[in-house]
Specification:
This protein is α+β, with helices and mostly antiparallel strands. The chain contains five helices and 17 strands. The model has no long low-confidence stretch (mean pLDDT 87).
């Protein structure tokens, strides 16, 4: 009985193996692709990786960095928003700079007030005081002269009526009164002449320096508001309220590097495509006058004709998307820039990777 069971199990195992071999040996139909791979539309076209950018006459996207460091206190726009030139995009904390501006403003105003005071001299009240001192000196001189004359006549009538020492004292009193009158007169003339021209010039320079310091500080205060340099669209905001930013940008937690605080695209109707052509294919790149290219949007069967714009005549190392040069092989590429009008019904965004074939008519 046992042998029969083993024999039956062996037969079943053989049959199962034959069935499995038959099933696995059957030719299976391949699954249709989700989308057709990009075909080469040119007989001798060359392939290049491309990245969509906002179209600029020069450069790539508009990367914005603050000129001063600080903490973000307010974000005034949203990603995808169209803005006009000089639109406020982002505000940094400026309390310290505001206090500095107010201090320099007060110093400039004080310097101006002193300058106006110098130019307004002589003050009427000071001139009247100086004039009264001259009149007092004249009266004192007249009194001293009268006393001297009386004593001199008395001495001439009777030499014993007054001592020689008293007469000399009277003469000295007249001389002192004349000297006081001369001092008072000169002080009056000095007051009447007003401020010295050199004092005015010095104060003018002091005021000019204070005014320029105030203007410079005010201009620096304005830089705590990051504004749009041109008309365009906000592509990305790489910071948040409370984050610290600097002229080097904003720290990106994911890439652990510095990124632009805000990236903007131009307001053009076009989008740009930056293609990186491997150096081993450069000899097959057509002349600029004959270049034709087509872009294929990944994940679709859509192809978009491209218009040649320019070639950056500098071959540089190929950099990965992480912006880190980690490849062991020195692969170098040449950037070629095209532009296109966004197709209807298909969303294409700056930063998107596309496939590009470059060729020339008839080839």
């Amino acid at each position: 009985m046992r042998d029969k069971v083993l024999f039956a199990l062996s037969i079943l195992g053989i049959l199962a193996g034959l069935v499995s071999a038959y099933l696995y040996g059957m030719e299976r139909k391949p699954q249709p692709p989700v989308f057709n791979p990009a075909p080469n539309p040119y007989a001798q076209g060359i392939y290049a990786n491309g990245i969509v950018e906002s179209y600029q006459s020069h450069g790539e996207n508009i990367n914005l960095y603050p000129e001063v460091p600080g903490t973000v206190v307010k974000i005034l726009v949203a990603e995808g928003q169209r803005v006009e030139r000089d639109t406020a995009l982002l505000a940094l904390g400026d309390s310290v700079q505001k206090a500095t501006v107010e201090q320099l403003k007060s110093q400039a105003e004080a310097a101006l007030a002193l300058l106006e005071e110098l130019k307004a001299q002589p003050r009427k009240e000071n001139l009247e005081v100086a004039k009264a001192q001259v009149e007092l000196a004249l009266a004192n001189l007249k009194t001293a002269q009268d006393q001297r004359d009386k004593q001199r006549r008395s001495y001439e009538l009777d030499a014993k009526s007054i001592s020689k020492d008293t007469l000399d004292t009277a003469e000295n009193a007249v001389k002192v009164a004349k000297a006081n009158l001369e001092v008072a007169q000169r002080q009056y003339d000095l007051t009447k002449a007003g401020a010295w021209v050199y004092d005015i010039r010095n104060q003018e320079r002091q005021y000019a320096a204070a005014a320029k310091a105030y203007a410079a500080s005010s201009n620096l205060l304005a830089k705590y508001i990051l504004r749009a340099p041109v008309d365009g669209i906000v592509l990305s905001i790489n910071t948040s309220v409370g984050s610290y930013v600097s002229p080097q940008g904003a720290y990106d937690t994911y890439t652990q590097g510095m990124s632009p605080v805000i990236a903007m695209g131009g307001g053009s109707e076009y989008l740009g495509v930056r293609c990186y052509v491997d150096e081993i294919l450069l000899h097959r790149l057509p002349d600029a006058a004959r270049i034709k290219a087509q872009m294929f949007v990944r994940g679709t069967d859509i192809r978009v004709p491209l218009e040649y714009v320019r070639t950056q005549p500098y071959v540089s190392p190929k950099i990965q998307l992480s912006d880190q040069r980690t490849e062991r092989v020195d692969v170098r590429v040449l950037p070629v820039i095209f532009r296109f009008t966004p197709p209807t019904g298909v969303q294409v965004y700056p930063g998107q990777l596309v496939d590009v074939y470059i060729g020339e008519p008839g080839k």
